[in-house]
Amino acid sequence: ASTLYKNRDTKHWDEIMKRWSGLRDDEIYKTLRVSYDDLNSSDERSIFLDVACFFGGIDEETAIYIWDACGFSSRLSIKALIDKSLIEIIDGKLELPNMLREMGRRIVGEELGTGPETQSRLWVKEEIINVLEQQK
């Protein structure tokens, strides 16, 4: 996880991937998870998970508008996530490497229970439809 803090942009991810190529997915997940667990506030955690699940590639200002409406400290949290190399702003859009997106989605998948109906976020179309149909 300290590797993430030292590397300020995604150009270093190729080297990290080569270094980690022999590791199993669970080992990589546990290593990356330390960075998430180290976040200082629930706002930072929520915003990271939102970017991982929905807002990757979305305009930063649009996302800030949404998070501000939810009462989050959006700009402070985004800066903290950038400082910890968990997200980037590229051409005004929120971005993160695929490994971090997968980690965020796995964290959401591990919430509360085993099915999508217990998760805080849904992003797979079929799961959304199934959950909504079950709620009828």
Tell me the β content.
Answer: under 5%
Biggest β-sheet: count, sense, barrel? 2 strands, antiparallel
Overall outline: globular
Helix content: 55-70%
State mean pLDDT (0 to 100 scale). 78
Please identify the oligomeric state: single chain
Give me the strand/helix succession.
HHHHHHEEHH
What is the number of E strands? 2
Distance between the termini: 43 Å
Describe this structure in words.
The chain has one domain. It is globular, with a radius of gyration of 15 Å. The model has no long low-confidence stretch (mean pLDDT 78). It is mainly alpha-helical. The termini are far apart. It is 60% helix and 4% strand. A two-stranded antiparallel sheet has the order 1-2. It has eight helices and two strands; from the N terminus they run H-H-H-H-H-H-E-E-H-H.
In short:
With 136 residues, the protein is mainly α. Helices cover 60% and strands 4% of the residues.
